[in-house]
Amino acid sequence: MDPALSERPALRLVRMDVDSAKRRRADATRSEGPGLAATDPRWVFAVRVSTQLEGGSAAILTPDRRRRLMRTAEALGLRAFDASVLIAIVQDGARRGEAALSADVARRIEAAPAPTKPRADAVGAALSMISAALIAVALVALSVRWLLGG
Question: Would the pTM of this model clear 0.85, i.e. be above it?
Fold first, then answer.
């Protein structure tokens, strides 16, 4: 072996102190904090998920509870896929031994797509369709009554 190679210090990345890396990560977490508002649908859903988990670090979610959570997600405007991703994020945090809603989990939740609000013109179109259907039913009822001589 070449003596010049043996005198070189080991690469810093190879022998990095694990404790100092954990401390730096924890300091970064404390300084940033979660950027989600308490009313953000993703955060509201994540809180609901964390209350439904069973088994401590096993983070078990029964099928019945998952179905209820998926209905809640739909009511909050979350797509089924995004709701499943949020459930997985919260479960992963709990299984790693972190708090189910730690700052790291909050950052990952924030990376999930925000729910889309229904467009105003889509709501207006839906109301127009419902109104047209009700008017059509009323006209049919009046026509039947007139034909029967009533």
Answer: no
